[in-house]
Target: M23 family metallopeptidase
Amino acid sequence: MSVRKSGMIACRVLQLLFIGLVIAHVCLDWSHSVLWDLLPLVLAYAVVTVANRWGGAPDSPRVAREPVEVAPPVTGRWSALNSPADRTPSHGIHAHGQTYAIDILAEPAPGQRPAFRWLWPLARRPQDYPAFGAPILAVADATVVRASDGQRDHLSRTSLPGLVYLMLVEGSVRELCGTGRILGNHVVLDLGDGTYAAYAHLRRGSLTVREGDRVRAGQPIARCGNSGNSSEPHLHFQLMDAPDPDAARGVPFVWRGIGVPRNGETFEAPAGTPALG
Model:
């Protein structure tokens, strides 16, 4: 088991210990200061901070890799968010192999995607977003090593109250429950040469592949959804050096014919992108 995966497991155990101590303190009327109950929580965040940085620094010679060129995972007009072209780690942490991850949002026409609202509506149906149900494609000839699509597609979190709820409540619970709850419905492909592609937040019931299947570049493997730790329907895509996101380190990528779009940049992914090699 890798140091990073061990750290993530230890963090979740410490978080559960903190919850247990708080419940016991209230139920058993313990006399010691409640501040002692916070010790496991402090240790949990210390452990996860070390685990997130262990072997994951993008400028470390030991883990530095050239970007891997793959085909785009979508077709049509999309925009980028949390792009590694602007910073690494792109999502602020190295955890879950997401050092070079990117989020992309469908933008078929200006104004078609509902905008963020400060107060109202609190949430929207996933069907209101053009990304929901968009085909997701294999980026290379590969083997499916992980495939999960049983989680629900929830409402958007695109208001200020919804976003606060996602960050402070829902996100913390999902972190405690493990990587699968953060990714939501997801697929991991083995591209060969120690490189794996992960697709997250897919639509429930939309996967067309199972573990062990062989896929070709450009083949539809699922549809975009809003499952897991997601504020609105979008695709979270990343390359990693292992199939388990808890143990993996991120690998830089470049999409053929597109590159790596910057935050807010709109790009067009053509249909029928040629396969690698």
